[in-house]
Structure formats: C-alpha cells, structure tokens
Amino acid sequence: MKDFVHYHEVVSFIGNNNVDQTTDLLLSQFEELSMVPEECISDNMRLREDLIIEEDRNNHDYVLSLKDLVDLSGNKFKSKRRKVKSFLENHPAHEVKVLDLKSDDVWKSIEDLTFLWNKLKRGKASDIKNELNALKRQISLSNVCEIIFVGIYIDDKLIAFTTNEKKHGGFAIGSFGKADYRYDGIFPYSEHVTAKHLHSLGCEFLNYEQDLGLDGLRKYKLSWKPVKFLKKYKIKKKDK
Question: Where does the Phosphatidylglycerol lysyltransferase C-terminal domain start and stop, copy by copy (predicted)?
Fold first, then answer.
C-alpha cells in the first residue's frame, strides 16, 4: 500500500494468525512495517528482544461517539454548538440531503465544490486530481458497500458534503469532507447533521481515520473529543 501523504510504499499486515512468522517473513524483505493494528501485535512479539515495536501515532484511527456529535452537549462542545448556532441563524433556508450517487448533476456539484475547496485552501493541481480520483473510486464502490454522501445546499447550490461508509457492529468510517468555508460554521454543522443521519441508521461510532501527523488535521480531529483510538504500530528489527 501507499502512505496517504507522500504516496511512498509502506508494508503492513492484518490478522492474528501466525503473526510472528508473518512479521519475520516481511522483515526479511523490508526494513520496516507500519500501520500494523494493535490486535496484530502478539504478547510474544512484545517480549522479543530482536524487535523494536513503536506506536505509529500518525496513523492511529480516531473513534468518535456519534451521540456526542448529535447532542453536542457539555462544555467540551461549547465552541461547536456556537458554530452550529451561527450557521443556523445565518442560513435558515438551507437544505440537508442524502446525495444520489448515480446522478450526473450531483457528481458535477461534488466536482465543482471540490475544485472550489482546493482553490480556497490554495492547493496544488495535483491535490485536486488525487482527491477527485479518490472520490470516484469511493462512488464506484457504492454498489457493493453502503456509501453515504450527505450534502448541504443553499439556493440549490452544494456548499458542503461528507462521505461515509456504514459498517457492521454500529460503526461508520468517515472518508471525505469538503465545504465552502466562507460560510461560517459550515464544517461543524456538516459533521453534526451527518452524525444525525448515521445515528438514525443505527451507527454508534464513527471511525474518523488518522491525522497523518499533520498538525492542523490533528488539532481538528482532537476537537471532536474522540472516545478512543484504534492504535497502529511500526515494527523493525534491532540492529545487530
């Protein structure tokens, strides 16, 4: 697989059968393993003196409580409530819709907003190409996975959307969120209404994925007060 920032090749594995043998085999061919889920790290591996096992903090998945995002109660969500209230007061006529992924008009709106989002953040042309390709791949999976796009419209214009995949066991996985952030409060409001929809479908938790070691992204994800992390690890051999 490739990492999500520099698109360098990384090597990992999943599963908990024969993990010591799998680790040894991979490390005989590669210098380091990364993004290895915590459940794949056996007790025996932790005791081995020939391995260095370190938390891969940049790739921990954030797990959020969807009920928290729906209620936004308590002092910890005070700033989010304020932003949501500001958006509602300024744009009472907005519409929230579950997007039809088979509609060409919907895709054109998603594409236009993604270009605008990239322009506002002064992104590179290569960034937008990667984003749109990833969105197209996700939409292509909607026939086999429960992919949910939630959009917010003002005057029939898409100003924000989120993408999530509904999984088993009360989980959803959040993938993308784009918005015209000239609308004050649009990002918190978008997450809030998405959480409402996912919660109505029976989801309890949102895997908000990793922060990739990016300071701004880490600060933003932490601001949603994760209830836990799905930890990932790096593994390599000690120098002889």
Answer: 39-234
Cβ-based neighbours of 73, under 8 Å, separated by 6 or more: none
Q: What is the pLDDT along the chain (240 residues), one digit of tens a residue?
A: 444 444 467 899 998 889 999 999 999 999 999 999 999 998 899 989 999 999 999 999 999 999 999 999 999 999 999 999 999 999 999 999 999 999 999 999 999 999 999 999 888 888 888 889 999 999 999 889 999 999 999 999 999 999 999 999 999 999 889 999 999 999 999 999 999 999 999 999 999 999 999 999 999 999 999 999 999 999 999 986
* C-alpha distance across the termini of the chain, in Å: 28
The half-sphere exposure of 96 on its side-chain side, counting CA atoms within 13 A, is 17
Domain ranges of the chain: 1-59+231-240, 61-209
Going edge to edge, which strands form the sheet with 95-98? Answer: 95-98, 146-154, 157-166, 171-179, 205-209, 61-65, 228-230
CA–CA dist 145, 151 (Å, integer): 19
Residue of 50, 48, 28, 52 lying closest to 36 (CA atoms): 52
